[in-house]
Specification:
heterodimer; A: about 425 residues; Rossmann fold; Ubiquitin-like (UB roll); de novo design (two linked rop proteins); 3 domains; 4-stranded parallel sheet; 11 strands; about 40% helix; B: alpha+beta; 2 domains; 4 strands
Chain lengths: ~425, ~170
């Protein structure tokens, strides 16, 4: 549902059904609402059968990359005798995205259940849930839920009498956007600086503690138990015509809308309806200018693109951007695109781990150039310089942080050039006073 | 890091704090993996992480003090110097900026007496800093005071909120 707002009739509530319902947080409350049936069913299945079911459902990673979940699980080696690990990425830090926070705050057992099923499927006895350090309330709720899950036999050395051991350990991050990158998260978990690692080796070969590891996003794991209970065909059937993007998805909508919140709709839902109907549209007298749909790390969409887009992995690509983590940053005609692009560049410059030259220097330089432009001191050659830097920042580094910084810059310049020109010609008063 | 005239270092990992740390060991295959949790314990016990505390943590976990410093300084939430009694972080990343976080910053700096970002108020009560995306963009503007997460803060709400943090 559109938490914190009442459910909208156009929503399909699966993960968000109990948002706002404190009764769902307890073990007993979760069981009353049908919880842990998916785990019980999974314990009666072979790991291969679970993986096949998840593959057939079409579930894809909800953290941003959209990789097929069942396929990812199938990469884990079998009979290798090594400890396997599951990492749950709860380091939600992508600007515009605030869905995993609500899953953990309101339905912690949905996540624990999904983690236990995934552990069984990949042959792991331990799952680490890496929660960003600022999420103090979700952490408290999760701590209580994990303790309750142990007390009720849903976690521990013999879960539900099956003889299987599955342990869940909560791990608190300490403030670093980059730790949401999967290999940076693993380094952080090992007690290191959160620097992303060069791949290969991929996590399924050598992940955390150099052992075979699967890493999944919170929303992905929470979607698994209902798939086992109700079947892959049911989940796949929830999509609106595109079999490559299935099931429901939580869309975080924020910025200049009347009702910001998390809206759960089936994949393929029109963005126009999501923004104008579910999220309440623009403030009185305002019109839509732009949407950054994937969290902030994707190209900016202009109004025409946003109004034409269908919300799934392919639909948003068709309209010039990417689904990413599905956090929609909505801007109306009062927004200053140049300033917002600058603010994002500043974000990436702050969050760069500084391993790769293109990222360390590129994020800092683009920030400075945009700052200069906003201070009314831009030069005609700055736009070409920004584009050239962005080119150097794309596809050339260990992780995609610098690509993410370049995406809004390149698309901003391409789609909203007149706003940049206005600062260059000083047709618009400087937005920053000092450089 | 500035030169600090520390008082003699009182060991942190004794008694309850030691028990808390040691209870984590079975959950990880290496001691080094307990570094971030150990640093959280240090900060909860002392309010910040001093060079001497880094050295003690290093000795307890079997790594070098320089290594610990490298890790501490990577993460924004660990304090490497003392901060005000109430540490305030205000989100100013794009989604919050669109919804008016600049005005919340101004109100916080004025009402706390901090004057500028990163500064501590003369009475030692508050430190105010900017933070990058707190992950609550639908509840703009979120702020954190210590471990308390407060949603939908507006300039008008600031003085009432601060009154709860004497």
């Amino acid at each position: 549902m559109g938490f914190p707002h009442p459910p909208h009739p156009k929503e399909t509530v699966l993960l968000s059904k109990h948002f706002g319902d404190a009764g769902a947080r307890t073990y007993a409350g979760w069981v009353e609402r049908g919880g842990y049936e998916g785990l019980k069913k999974a314990l009666g299945m072979t790991p291969d059968a679970i993986i096949e079911e998840v593959k057939a459902s079409g579930l894809r990673g909800r953290g941003g990359a959209g990789f097929p979940t069942g396929l990812k699980w199938s990469f884990m080696p079998k009979g290798d005798g090594k400890p396997h690990y599951l990492c749950c990425n709860a380091d939600e830090s992508e600007p515009g995205t605030f869905k995993d926070r609500e899953i953990m705050r309101w339905t912690p057992h949905a996540l624990i259940e999904g983690c236990a099923v995934a552990c069984h499927a990949i042959g792991a006895e331990r799952c680490y849930i890496y929660i960003r350090g600022e999420f103090t309330e979700p952490l408290r709720v999760m701590e209580q839920a994990v303790a309750e899950a142990y007390a009720n036999g849903a976690l521990g050395s013999n879960i539900f009498g099956s003889g299987k051991r599955i342990e869940v350990t909560l791990f608190r991050g300490a403030g670093a956007y980059i730790c949401g990158e999967e290999t940076a998260l693993m380094n952080s978990l090992e007690g290191k600086r959160g620097n992303p690692r060069i791949k290969p080796p991929f996590p399924a070969a050598a992940g955390v503690f150099a052992m075979p590891t699967t890493i999944n996003n919170v929303e992905t794991l929470a979607a698994v138990p209902p798939i086992l209970v109700r079947g892959a065909a049911w989940y796949k059937g929830l999509c609106l015509g595109n079999p490559k993007s299935t099931g429901t998805k939580l869309f975080s909508v924020c910025g200049h809308v009347m009702r910001p919140g998390n809206y759960e709709v089936t994949m393929g839902f029109p963005m126009k309806d999501l923004i104008y109907d579910l999220a309440g549209g623009m403030r009185p007298g305002r019109t839509l200018k732009a949407v950054i749909p994937g969290g902030s790390s994707v190209p900016i969409m202009n109004r025409a693109e946003a109004e034409a887009a269908l919300c799934d992995y392919e639909g948003i690509v068709e309209q010039g951007s990417m689904l990413g983590s599905a956090g929609f940053i909505v801007m109306d005609d009062s927004a200053d695109i140049v300033y917002e692009v600058y603010r994002l560049a500043k974000f990436y410059a702050h969050e760069s781990c500084a391993q790769c030259t293109q990222c360390r220097e590129g994020t800092a330089w683009t920030t400075k150039i945009l700052e200069r432009l906003l201070a009314g001191q831009g030069k005609a050659e700055d736009f070409d310089l920004l584009l050239e830097l962005s080119e150097q920042m794309t596809g050339k580094t260990i992780c995609v942080l610098s690509d993410s910084c370049a995406a809004p810059i390149v698309s901003g310049l391409k789609k909203f050039r007149s706003e940049f020109d206005a600062y260059l010609t000083r047709a618009k008063a400087p937005a920053l006073t000092t450089v | 890091m500035s030169v600090l005239h520390e008082e003699a270092h009182q060991p942190i990992f004794v008694g309850k704090a030691k028990e808390r740390l040691e209870a984590l060991y079975p959950s990880f295959p290496t001691r080094q993996a307990c570094l971030l949790p150990a640093l959280w314990i240090v900060q909860q016990e002392r309010g910040w992480i001093s060079p001497a505390a880094m050295a003690e943590t290093a000795a307890v976990l079997g790594v070098t003090p320089a290594y610990v410093r490298g890790v501490v300084t990577f993460y924004t939430m660990y304090h490497t110097h003392p901060v005000g009694r109430h540490f305030i972080q205000v989100c100013t990343t794009s989604p919050c900026h669109l919804c008016g976080s600049d005005d919340v910053v101004k109100a916080l700096l004025k009402e706390t007496g901090c004057g500028e970002l990163g500064a501590t108020s003369p009475d030692g009560r508050f430190t105010v800093t900017e933070v990058e995306c707190l992950g609550a963009c639908g509840f703009a503007t979120p702020i954190m005071i210590g471990d308390d997460f407060i949603e939908s803060v507006t300039p008008e709400r600031v003085s009432g909120i601060l009154a709860g943090y004497p």
